Amino acid sequence: MSGPAAAATPAVEAERTLIDRLWPDPAADLDDEALLATYAFPADRPWLRMNFISSLDGAATRQGRSGFLGDDADRRVFDLLRREADAVLVAAGTVRTEGYGAMRLDAAAIAWREAHGLPAQPVFVLVSRSLDLDPDASVFTRAPMRPIVVTVDEAPADRRATLTAVADVVTAGAGSVDPARLRAELASRGLQRVHAEGGPTLFGSFLAGGGVDELCLTLAPALEAGDAVRIAHSAVAAPTEMRLSSVLRAGSELLLRYVRDRSAAV
Ligand SMILES: NC(=O)c1ccc[n+]([C@@H]2O[C@H](COP(=O)([O-])OP(=O)(O)OC[C@H]3O[C@@H](n4cnc5c(N)ncnc54)[C@H](OP(=O)(O)O)[C@@H]3O)[C@@H](O)[C@H]2O)c1
């Protein structure tokens, strides 16, 4: 689904695209509670969800940004998916390209979270090997919860020291962040429900590491051609079977939820 810059657009009730559930349990014009129920995390185990948007021909970006592919329905679901999470995970390339600022959920989301026994805001988690992240950026300085930066053994020591002033910096791999180690680290902090917003390098490396439980994929009704990246890439292929969990439709756009099929032999 599209990135945070586009997500800032307020939804105008009268103009917004209705979202219907096609499968399972068909239902028209889902309200926020019905959408949240459709995307509920499993109650009893740690879970890592990836959330992406793609054009019909597999482009993950338009003019270099995912936000230009999304519409108001995609942005509505994008925001709601953050609401249920303990942690929102984003890799450094996406933070830099999409211009992430501090992640702050709105008043309705805070009220919902508190009513469900959650802290007002999820924790923002960044993944970076190089630690090429500006400690003066608002993603750190205006964060409502102290962010976590997950990096590797070989990360530059000086950047690690600088970022420690504005975030918890933890190591979860030698040359690449290992999703199992990242998940264990977050779970040790009580952050079990992890909602990841990309990008493609992170997704590819986490697929290779067997660390993804779910994909929420918006299929934007557009063809892009060009040389845009796909939603996942890695040096080595990582076949991963998925099982359909739900299908929503907003106009000509599909919002698909797939969960990892752990019974499938690949
Ligand atoms: N269609 C969508 O839904 C969607 C979603 C997100 C992003 N995007 C698009 O994707 C593009 C960015 O692609 P990208 O592949 O560069 O994004 P990315 O995966 O967000 O960023 C790659 C960077 O993240 C860090 N990283 C990722 N996985 C790592 C791992 N396992 N271990 C250590 N570090 C890791 C590294 O950061 P360092 O360089 O700091 O070491 C790496 O260079 C942008 O155009 C963005 O708009 C699209």
Q: What does this 3D model show about the protein?
A:
The structure is a single chain. The protein has 266 residues and is an alpha/beta fold. It has one domain: Dihydrofolate Reductase, subunit A (3-Layer(aba) Sandwich). The protein has helices at residues 4-7, 32-38, 72-83, 92-98, 107-115, 138-141, 157-163, 179-188, 200-208; strands at 20-23, 47-55, 87-91, 123-127, 148-151, 168-171, 193-196, 214-220, 242-250, 253-260. Strands 1-9-10-8-2-7-3-4-5-6 form a ten-stranded mixed sheet, sandwiched between helices. Helix 6 (138-141) links the parallel strand 4 (123-127) and strand 5. Residues 5-12 have low confidence and may be disordered. Bound molecules: NADP nicotinamide-adenine-dinucleotide phosphate. NADP nicotinamide-adenine-dinucleotide phosphate binds at residues 1, 52-53, 60-61, 64-66, 91-94, 97-98, 127-130, 132, 152, 176-177, 197-202, 205, 229, 231.
Produce a short descriptive summary.
With 266 residues, the chain is α/β, with parallel strands linked by helices. The chain is built from nine helices and ten strands. It has a ten-stranded mixed β-sheet with strand order 1-9-10-8-2-7-3-4-5-6, with helices on both faces.
Q: Please tally the β strands and state the result.
A: 10
CATH homologous superfamily designation = Dihydrofolate Reductase, subunit A
The CA-CA distance between the termini, in Å, is 27 Å
Uncertain regions spanning at least 5 consecutive residues: 5-12
Which molecules are bound besides the chains?
NADP nicotinamide-adenine-dinucleotide phosphate
Biggest sheet architecture: 10 strands, mixed
Q: Proportion of β residues?
A: 15-25%
CATH architecture: 3-Layer(aba) Sandwich
Q: Looking at the structure, what is the overall shape?
A: globular
Count of the domains:
1
Oligomeric status:
single chain
Output the helix-strand order.
HEHEHEHHEHEHEHEHEEE
